[in-house]
Specification:
mainly beta; Umud Fragment, subunit A; eight-stranded antiparallel beta sheet; four-stranded antiparallel beta sheet; about 10% helix
């Protein structure tokens, strides 16, 4: 009987240890990291539909949207550090409540304008260098089944969908890939924006397929984003699936596991 009691006690202790570990992991995830599954192609080819990443919620300190259950101070931020130009950031859309992911282009006080597809930042063009092509299969992507936009369209199912690729370098030295589907889009030429204090200007890397700060919130875009809507910074892709479900293991992109977000 003593042996059986000891065994039962050991099982109970094991279960308690597992439960405690899961609780700690849940708290850690809630406080410090948020999982994010890329649902659209607005950040290609930096981020692809089906990329799974964790958002670093401590990158900029706490905000009302990065802090769970109202556990953080209402006024100000803890351990606050300013977002940097070129960061890939997850934020809450101010009007529809959806989580978005875009690249930070304009800081408070900056002027931003897009002319013929090129960013004019504080009066100076941001360099773009041709970097070949981004080629993907023209087929439905992700759980929603979105079709990619192609510069060489129309393209039949299973055909090669091509976009022009450039390397863009921001004033702080951050270089990243951007894509162009076609010239002359309405978002290729914008008004001159001045970023208000406490706000940020975001753009998608897939420039012709992104509802970002170039588009007003009234028209479904991001507009000038207030700082309190920031959630955190995307640093690394943990996992990636090209299929309709993450359980379709034959569609996993092994070359994107643990890939840094640049």
């Amino acid at each position: 009987m003593a042996a059986k009691a000891n065994n039962d006690g050991g099982i109970v202790e094991t279960i308690k240890t597992i439960v405690y570990a899961l609780l700690i992991a849940g708290v850690f995830r809630t406080l410090f990291f948020q999982p994010f599954w890329i649902p659209s192609g607005s950040m290609k080819d930096t981020l692809l539909i089906g990329d799974f990443l964790f958002v670093n919620k401590m990158a900029y300190g706490y905000s009302q949207y990065s802090c769970p259950f109202s556990m953080c101070p209402i006024e100000g931020r803890l351990f606050a550090s300013e977002p940097e130009r070129g960061d890939v950031v997850v934020f809450r859309h101010p009007t529809n409540g959806t989580d978005y992911i875009k690249r930070l282009i304009g800081l408070p006080g900056d002027t931003v304008q897009v002319t013929n597809g090129q960013i004019i930042l504080n009066g100076t063009p941001v360099p773009q260098v041709p970097d070949g092509q981004f080629i993907e299969t023209y087929a439905k992507q992700g759980p929603v089944g979105l079709l990619p936009q192609c510069a060489n369209g129309p393209v039949g199912d299973g055909g090669e969908c091509v976009k022009q690729r450039f390397t863009e370098t921001l004033p702080n030295g951050v270089s990243h890939s951007i894509l162009n589907v076609r010239d002359g889009q309405f978002s290729d030429n914008t008004d001159l924006f001045t970023v208000p204090e406490g706000h940020y200007f975001f753009m998608g890397d897939n420039r012709d397929n992104s509802q970002d700060s170039r588009v007003s919130q009234l028209s479904g875009g991001v507009g000038m984003l207030p700082a309190e809507y920031l959630i955190g910074r995307a640093d690394r892709i943990m996992f990636s699936s090209a299929g309709r479900s993450l359980f379709f293991f034959w569609t996993w992109r092994s070359d994107r596991f643990f890939k840094a977000v640049e």
